[in-house]
Design goal:
The chain is mainly beta and 765 residues long. It has seven helices and 34 strands.
């Protein structure tokens, strides 16, 4: 996953939003004021009152208010490389926030000092760093070579962190970097694209304005602030190839200054992708990959006079024609301890807007970075507090829920297109979605069709889903292979799409056919929880091993475990909380799932299942816990519903699914301590790698699987046995690079057992 995210990061930074030869008003000589002419075009405004507000804002925002000479601030940033994907539950509709979840492959926290001067010079100086990784990877700092924060939202032009010409220092005589001899590390100019400010004096040449209504009032430092909501949209006949903004502006009505700016960036330039590396160009062509950039910048009033940064979110999402999954880079920065130096004479003698000067990213010495420990938020907390679909209302037209009907040839998951396992061999498929949008708001039809080449069997299905507010109703008929895993480290073992190619097919499979009616209720802000019920008919059939080994495997696959064939009526109810948290994602957090399932007919069972996952930092200590419980009520449940444990199924140190029964409890707990050295990022050959960051961890895994007398008799012909009491193992490791690499030893602690060497890649604890 990390490799895909890193490659996508390169696409996002080098792909669609690329530098273009700007219009003459967009690229002034280095260090010179931005000279633009006032535009009078009342046809760009929805009302006369709105035009009056925008005209005042053009005057207020063309330069920083007089009196402020410079400022410094502490900035805590979190950079996440994330996959936003539909959950396994039916009814996940493309283009909406319903039923999606996020898994971060890596999260990095960066503490920096921001230093801004009135002439426009700005430096972001890194003084602290830490990371969490699910696997070996390079640091996001490798491709974030310039300052990713914006020092102000004043000026006729804005600089955003995207490919483009770097604004230059005016003379260098008073530049921050020249005056601070302690600066080390990256000093390359920021490659930033200059955008036309919506409140530029020539803004009506590029934008159309609507809204203008009061959205809120708030008390700020004893002053009642009236907030006006303005919507800006680029016009089709905008001159040149400027980078433009489209979205919402929240404006202080009294001062006509920006409080918040939220939307996406538009670029007309499409031809510069030829300068990208060959691998990226091939990826873009094959998957129709495009990058979409969103910003959400919030200001706070400082000293009762200036609206300066408080929180900034920059998000670059990749959308592909292959799947609904969106890889993305999310950067959230919080500003604190903002110290303004005021000078009554500053800005009194100039009516010009801000000069376009250099935005620099520099790094303190490794010793200084290593010593930083004053983190204000736990790593991963910012990343999981928001979601990729927050921007759906300002997304491109084809990604919105409104508009004319459209057909999208796109799968829900990559495994719907290609997968390889021992019971199907190679599977290839196609998928498409008909989105009715304005013709029938909320209604979507999805179809999947494919062929398992070794099994010589068709697979696929058809689903109709209807979204109305937080409610999702669905009707689906499908034939697929389902995993029987109970305690797998990743939820949904069927998502191991190509693991079988390399000899890892750690799941057992059942050929399942279902026809189900479902109803879901999305809960909480950001759709981070859901309740769902499903009812209908199903049928299970055996699916024997048809492939002896994978093409890149060194050993044969194990046989698929036996099961009972038959049909049944099925009812399922489930509750999911904290969808974006858990132990199998770098952003951590808490996740809980509860499920009740009943089947009756030729096959019958009643099954309750619960799971609780938690991953959290407390100071320099990392705590990771997971608990699972499964209980089958009654006798005679089919073999595929029995509880199985051992190996990757909750008890490392024991054989794969060594234990079986009708009830089971598994608990896992790991505690780690971040050692206070080697915590600075590493630089090799132009790349930046995460800090070595050694962290000793101790993990304990325990569980019990029991069986009634009737279930024991049912299992006896197959040699299945319960645990006969509690079983437990432990491991002690030294983890490096944010947990991505570890070395240590493990042993059983419920019986005499020698220590066994353990070397692992992957940060799932």
């Amino acid at each position: 996953m990390l490799t895909a995210l890193v490659l996508t990061a390169q696409v996002l930074l080098q792909g669609e939003v690329r530098p273009a030869p700007p219009a003459s008003t967009d690229r002034p000589p280095a260090g010179q004021p931005v000279a633009v002419s006032v535009v009078r075009d009342s046809g760009r405004f929805a009302s006369a009152g709105l035009e009056a507000l925008v005209r005042r804002a053009q005057v207020s925002n063309r330069r920083v208010p007089a009196g402020i000479e410079r400022y410094t601030a502490q900035i805590e940033s979190e950079i996440g490389l994330i996959l936003n994907s539909p959950v396994a539950t039916a009814g996940a509709v493309a283009g909406t926030a319903a039923a999606t979840q996020e898994q971060a492959g890596q999260v990095e926290q960066v503490q920096s000092t921001g230093r801004w001067q009135r002439d426009g010079a700005y430096e972001q100086h890194i003084i602290g760093y830490r990371s969490q990784m699910l696997g070996p990877s390079i640091s996001a700092l490798s491709f974030l070579r310039g300052a990713w924060t914006a020092p102000t939202l004043y000026g006729n032009r804005l600089a955003f962190f995207f490919g483009g010409f770097g604004a230059r220092d005016s003379t260098g005589r008073d530049s921050i970097a020249r005056r601070d001899s302690s600066l080390r590390g990256a000093t390359r100019d920021s490659t930033r694209r200059i955008a036309v400010h919506p409140f530029a004096v020539d803004g009506p040449r590029y934008y159309r304005y609507s809204g203008g209504d009061t959205s809120a009032t708030m008390m700020v430092a004893g002053r009642l602030v009236t907030v006006v909501h303005v919507v800006v949209e680029p016009v089709a006949d905008a001159p040149g190839e400027a980078l433009l903004f489209g979205g919402e502006l929240f404006v202080d009505a009294a001062r006509a200054e920006i409080i918040r700016m939220r939307g996406r960036l538009y670029s007309e330039q499409q031809g510069s992708g030829a300068r990208a590396p060959l691998a990226i160009r091939v990826l873009q062509a094959a998957s129709r990959l495009r990058g979409i950039a969103y910003v959400d910048y919030e200001n706070a009033e400082v000293n009762g006079r200036y609206w300066l940064p408080r929180r900034q979110r920059l998000e670059m999402q990749a959308v592909t024609s292959l799947t609904e999954t969106r890889p993305l880079i999310r950067i959230i920065s919080q500003w604190r301890e903002l110290d303004v130096t005021e000078n009554p004479e500053a800005g009194r003698d100039s009516a010009d807007s801000l000069r376009l000067t250099r935005y620099r990213l520099t790094t303190a010495s490794a010793d200084s970075v290593r010593l930083w420990s004053d983190w204000r938020r736990a790593i991963g907390e910012e990343t999981r507090s928001v979601g990729a679909r927050d921007f759906d209302d300002v997304a491109p037209p084809d990604l919105r829920a409104d508009g004319p009907p459209q057909v999208v040839f796109q799968a829900r998951r990559f495994s719907d297109l290609v997968r390889f396992n021992r019971v199907e061999g190679l599977y290839t498929g196609v998928a498409g979605t008909l989105q009715f949008r304005d013709a029938a708001p909320g209604l979507t039809l999805r179809g999947i069709a494919g062929w398992a080449w070794s099994a010589q069997a068709p697979k696929g299905g058809l689903e109709a889903a209807y979204v109305r507010g937080p409610w999702i109703s669905s009707l689906r008929a499908e034939r697929y292979v389902a995993s029987t895993s109970d305690f797998a480290p990743f939820m949904g073992g069927g998502e191991q799409a190509i693991g079988g190619l390399f000899g890892r097919d750690d799941a057992d499979w059942v050929d399942r056919r279902v026809a189900l009616l479902g109803l879901s209720r999305e809960l909480g802000r950001g759709h981070n929880a859901a309740f769902r019920v499903e009812a209908g008919a199903g049928e299970d059939a055996p699916t024997p091993r048809v492939v002896l080994r994978g093409p890149f495997a060194g050993q044969d696959f194990r046989d698929n475990r036996p099961l009972n064939a038959g049909s049944y009526w099925l009812t399922t109810a489930s509750l999911e909380l904290g969808r974006n948290g858990g132990t199998a994602t770098a952003q951590g957090g808490t996740r809980a799932t509860l499920q009740w399932q009943s089947g009756f007919g030729a096959l019958h069972w009643n099954r309750a299942q619960a799971r609780l996952e938690h991953r959290r930092w407390l100071g320099d200590f990392l705590f990771v816990q997971r608990a699972d419980a499964v209980w089958l009520f009654g006798d005679g449940a089919p073999l595929q519903q029995l509880v199985e444990a051992g190996g990757v199924e909750g008890l490392p140190g024991y054989a794969y699914k060594e234990f079986t029964g009708d009830k089971g409890v598994m608990a896992r707990s790991t505690v780690g301590y971040q050692l206070p050295f080697w915590n600075a990022p590493l630089r090799f050959w132009g790349l930046i790698f995460p800090a070595v960051a050694p962290m000793p961890t101790v993990g304990v895994y325990g569980g019990r699987v029991g069986a009634s007398l009737a279930t024991r008799a049912q299992m006896a012909p197959y040699g299945y046995v319960p645990t006969e009491g509690w079983r437990a193992t432990m491991d002690a490791r030294l983890r490096f690079f944010g947990g991505a690499v570890s070395i240590g030893a493990s042993r059983a602690i419920d019986r005499p057992d020698p220590w066994k060497l353990l070397i692992a890649l992957g940060g799932v604890l």
